[in-house]
């Protein structure tokens, strides 16, 4: 009996000692990791040398490092480090969240389908973003005039790096223009112009934008100007094509 009592006393002593020891551990649920809201406070080793101000801009239409860093990602989760000589973007990472296959631009009279997937396979993201294209669809003004001057798509589509911008059918769906256009004429029946017949014989650059603007009615065509060899009169001179004086050919 005394032996049993001794054992019970020892057990009680050990239990009370364990309960009284200060372990230093906090009670309650573990703290949640703090979301990174500032590159300066992110703790990323990249900014031990690099200035975080350069990457902390959060402007509309531009890629926001701030928003992506807020997810707690490290630089090398998006960027492939190459011995600090250059750094390329890991395009596969972007595709995890963004649908970057193709975009359709319907605003033009001839809708354009742009394959982002094809371009991303041949070029790095930095070659197009944020210049000449900002990181948001529709915020960069894209015009054919600008392309012909080497802006936007024309930076590469110049006939040297890629096919020239004047090769319209490579991007535009031309089916919308394979029809006849009717132009009212004072004192005569409307002049009917077949865009389909002309595009079958000539390239778009033969007429646009040197003779005609890319908008119906925007060129201000007049018969007296045509007789002087302008507009339609450049070809309809009786030699290249039937003469503009042959009225019934156009005015039905």
Features:
about 250 residues; alpha+beta; 6 strands; about 10% strand
Sheet with the most strands, sense and barrel status: 2 strands, antiparallel
Summarize the amount of helix as a percent range: 10-25%
Low-confidence stretches: 16-25, 32-37
The share of residues in extended strands comes to 5-15%
Please give the alpha-carbon distance between the first and last residues: 128 Å
The averaged pLDDT comes out at 79
Q: Please state the overall shape, judged from the principal axes of the Cα atoms.
A: elongated
Q: Helix-strand pattern, N to C?
A: HHEEHEEHHEEHH
What is the gyration radius calculated from CA atoms?
35 Å
Strand order of the largest sheet: 1-2
Q: Kindly state the number of beta strands.
A: 6
Going by helix content, strand content and strand pairing, the class is alpha+beta
Task: Describe the structure concisely.
The protein has helices at 2-20, 65-69, 91-95, 116-122, 144-148, 195-201, 223-227; strands spanning 79-82, 86-89, 102-105, 112-115, 180-185, 188-194.
Describe the structure.
- This protein is α+β, with helices and mostly antiparallel strands.
- 21% of the residues lie in helices and 12% in strands.
- The protein is built from 7 helices and 6 strands, in the order H-H-E-E-H-E-E-H-H-E-E-H-H.
- The protein has helices spanning 2-20, 65-69, 91-95, 116-122, 144-148, 195-201, 223-227; strands at residues 79-82, 86-89, 102-105, 112-115, 180-185, 188-194.
- Mean pLDDT is 79; it is low at 16-25 and 32-37.
């Amino acid at each position: 009996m005394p032996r049993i009592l001794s054992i019970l006393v020892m057990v009680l002593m050990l239990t009370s000692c364990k309960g009284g020891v200060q372990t230093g551990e906090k009670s309650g649920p573990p703290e949640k990791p703090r979301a990174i809201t500032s590159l300066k406070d992110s703790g990323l080793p990249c900014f031990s040398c690099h200035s975080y101000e350069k990457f902390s801009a959060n402007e509309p239409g531009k890629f926001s490092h701030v928003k992506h860093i807020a997810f707690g990602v490290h630089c090398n989760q998006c960027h492939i480090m190459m011995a600090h000589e250059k750094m390329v973007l890991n395009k596969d990472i972007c595709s995890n969240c963004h649908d970057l296959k193709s975009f359709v631009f319907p605003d033009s009279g001839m809708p354009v389908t742009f394959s982002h997937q094809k371009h991303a396979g041949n070029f790095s993201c930095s070659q197009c973003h944020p210049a000449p294209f900002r990181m948001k669809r529709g915020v960069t003004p894209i015009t054919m005039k600008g392309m012909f001057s080497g802006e936007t798509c024309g930076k590469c589509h110049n006939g040297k790096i890629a096919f020239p911008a004047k090769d319209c059918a490579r991007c535009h769906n031309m089916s919308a223009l394979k029809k006849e256009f009717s132009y009212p004429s004072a004192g005569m029946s409307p002049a009917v112009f077949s865009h389909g017949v002309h595009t079958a014989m000539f390239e778009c650059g033969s007429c646009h934008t040197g003779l005609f603007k890319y908008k119906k009615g925007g060129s201000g065509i007049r018969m007296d100007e045509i007789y002087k060899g302008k507009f339609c009169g450049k070809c309809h001179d009786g030699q290249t094509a039937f003469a503009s004086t042959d009225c019934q050919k156009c005015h039905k």
